[in-house]
User: What shape does this take?
Amino acid sequence: MCDRWLASVCGYNLYGMGLREFSIDTPIGVLYVASDGDVVKRISMYSVSSSPEPGELNCFETSVCNEIKEYFDGRRRCLGFAVDFSQGTPFQQRVWNVLREIPYGATLTYSQVARLAGSPAACRAVGSACNRNPLLLAVPCHRVVGASGKLVGFACGLEVKDYLLRHEAGFL
Assistant: This one.
């Protein structure tokens, strides 16, 4: 099911954790997914591998790939694979947990996320946590907007944020 999406699989060592990275072609560009075979640790539009080599997806990677494909095909609203963002600070982890609770197609403001994370005055810190989010899509920081509802601040660019929000709203 994911064969046409697979660009490459390569082994590498990220933060001394011995992870594998694979890439998936998506409507927003190539996504790079790093996992240890049981848990996804990183989803990004940027690779950390210097020399990818073609390879085969294992069962877990195939499942992750299929879920991401189903998300972009409009057949999945929630990514259910296991993720690990323990490399974040306690505050970042609180923010990322709040982001995971934002429903598909909905948005919250940075201020609302700060309140839900237990730090009502930390709007800018929420923006920083969103910027450092290691799990694009799985921790949906694209669902956080400015106080006026305007699209602001997204590590992958506002055009990607706009695409994801329009996709979830059913406008694509």
